[in-house]
């Protein structure tokens, strides 16, 4: 079982906006560009890059999505106390 992951994410306030971003990604939009444009998280300036983190380091809903979802495909929207996340897992180790 993976103990670390490297992920990108886009954080928005509304589920509808998150779903729209997923549609754009599915049509070929670049994750980093959309993160810079829409994410309310400071990581948005870095294309949504959260770097590598350990299992249990993030809020439970986010953690579960990262460690159980597909790698290199958009996951979400995932609701947490911060808003709605679109997540892209780069790798798990």
TrEMBL record:
Gene Ontology cellular-component terms listed: cytoplasm
Pfam families: Rotamase_3
Keywords carried by this UniProt record: Cytoplasm, Isomerase, Rotamase
Record has Transcription regulation as a keyword: no
Gene3D superfamilies membership: 3.10.50.40
Catalytic activity, reaction form: [protein]-peptidylproline (omega=180) = [protein]-peptidylproline (omega=0)
Known EC number: 5.2.1.8
GO MF annotation, one: peptidyl-prolyl cis-trans isomerase activity
Presence of the UniProt keyword Protein biosynthesis in the record: no
Protein location: Cytoplasm
Residues in PpiC domain copies: 2-91
Listed InterPro entries: PPIase_dom_sf (IPR046357), PPIase_PpiC (IPR000297), PPIase_PpiC_CS (IPR023058), PpiC/parvulin_rotamase (IPR052204)
Role noted for this protein: PPIases accelerate the folding of proteins. It prefers amino acid residues with hydrophobic side chains like leucine and phenylalanine in the P1 position of the peptides substrates.
Family from the record: Belongs to the PpiC/parvulin rotamase family.
Listed name of the protein: Peptidyl-prolyl cis-trans isomerase C
């Amino acid at each position: 079982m993976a103990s670390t992951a490297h992920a990108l994410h886009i954080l928005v306030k509304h589920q509808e906006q998150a779903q729209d971003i997923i549609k754009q990604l599915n049509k070929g939009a670049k994750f980093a560009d959309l993160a810079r444009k829409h994410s309310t998280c400071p990581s948005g300036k870095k294309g949504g890059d959260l770097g590598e983190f350990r299992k249990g380091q993030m809020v439970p809903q986010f953690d579960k999505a990262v460690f159980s979802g597909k790698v290199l495909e958009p996951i979400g929207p995932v609701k947490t106390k911060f808003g709605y996340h679109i997540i892209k897992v780069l790798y798990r180790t």
